[in-house]
Amino acid sequence: MRPRYDVLSIFPEYLQPLELSLIGKARKSGLLSLTVTDLRDFTTDRHRTVDDTPYGGGAGMVMKPEPWAQALESVLEARGDADVVDEPPAEGEERHDSRPLLVVPSPAGNVFTQRTAEAFAQERHIVFACGRYEGIDERVLDWAGERFRVMPVSLGDYVLNGGEVAVMAMVEATARLLPGVIGNPESLVEESHSDGLLEYPVYTKPAVWRDRAVPDVLLSGNHAVIARARRDWQIERTARRRPDLIEALDESDLNARDRSVLDAARSEGDEGNIE
Fold first, then answer.
1. Which one of 183, 198, 232 terminates a domain?
2. Domain assignment present for 179
3. What does pTM read for this prediction?
4. CA–CA separation, 90 vs 33, rounded Å?
5. Is the C or the N end of the chain the one with fewer CB within 10 Å?
6. Could you give the residue ranges of the DSSP H alpha helices within 32-163?
7. How many Cβ atoms from other residues are within 10 Å of residue 252's Cβ?
């Protein structure tokens, strides 16, 4: 069964880039299903209003609950399980939660990482709720928790105008991990964050460009030496740019050469260089 992604937004045209490049090809070839629905289709007034003033005062507007509830119900109806409710397992049985995952982009959510993308790639059905204004009425998330596994997710410690940009990033990061989407699956193994380190620098022809030469080791033809050099560059780059990732590493997983390179990178410190 191919993964299914539903996106609810008041700006469905915002998601059109997902029709392009590898994700667009994957959709056309049937590797995944992605449906974008206009939240305003579930309003009842002639102005198609989706927001109202916040209780308790304050700046901005809040997205009304009823259009969201009806939109989410329509997703479940299309899925064929509008009445799905998470039931506790019988005694001795392991819980299997078959409810779809409802992802709500929010600066108040857990930060999206490569590990999150890998987890999402195992999901059969994800619904993305693109909020706007000051956010969605909190009661929607409480209500949805009976029918979905609700997960607020943030791209990082900053605020966007809406959830659409975040959803595009999450869908692309997730869908590219699905079998068949990337032409050469081995390329996924050596990417940044795949093993807790940033990716090594890459080069192409010509060997000398504007007086800048490709590192000699890459021209040696010795694949073992090249692999070791790339590993060194990963460690050095991560130590300079993302010391937080280095701190999160389990150094017991590093061999003697790794630790030597890491110690040297740490001793050099951050000289403010940007590669």
1. 183
2. yes
3. 0.82
4. 33
5. N
6. 65-79, 114-120, 138-144
7. 5
Domain count, the chain: 2
The amino acid occupying position 244 is D
Asked whether residue 54 is assigned to any structural domain, the reply reads yes
pLDDT at residue 86 greater than cutoff 60: no
Same domain, 15 and 139: yes
What b-and-e string marks burial along 187-212, b requiring 16 or more CB atoms within 10 Å of the CB? Answer: eeebebbeebbbbbeeeeeeeeeeee
Q: Are residues 177 and 219 in the same domain?
A: no
State phi, psi for 71 to the nearest 5 degrees: -65, -45
Q: Do residues 217 and 179 both lie within one domain?
A: no
CB 84 within 8 A of CB 99: yes
Residue 108: strand, helix, or coil: strand
Q: What confidence score (pLDDT) does residue 185 get? A: 63
User: What is the three-class DSSP state of 20?
Assistant: coil
Residues placed in the known binding site: 131, 155-160
* Count of C-beta atoms within a 10 Å radius of residue 29: 11
Q: Are 36 and 7 in contact (CB under 8 A)?
A: yes
pLDDT digits (tens, 9 = 90+) for 234-272: 999 999 999 999 999 988 889 999 999 999 999 886 544
| CA distances in angstroms from 212 to 15, 149, 204, 208, listed in the order given | 40, 52, 12, 5
Q: What is the reported pLDDT for 243?
A: 94
Q: Which residues are annotated as a binding site for S-adenosyl-L-methionine?
A: 131, 155-160
- Among 108, 110, 85, 109, smallest CA distance to 98 is for 85
Torsion of CA 123, 108, 72, 112, to 10 degrees: -20
The pLDDT tens digits for 134-166 are 999 999 999 999 999 999 999 999 999 999 999
- Please indicate, yes or no, whether residues 79 and 173 belong to a single structural domain of this protein: yes
Q: Which residues contact 185 (CB under 8 A, 6 or more apart)?
A: 179
CB 275 within 8 A of CB 250: no
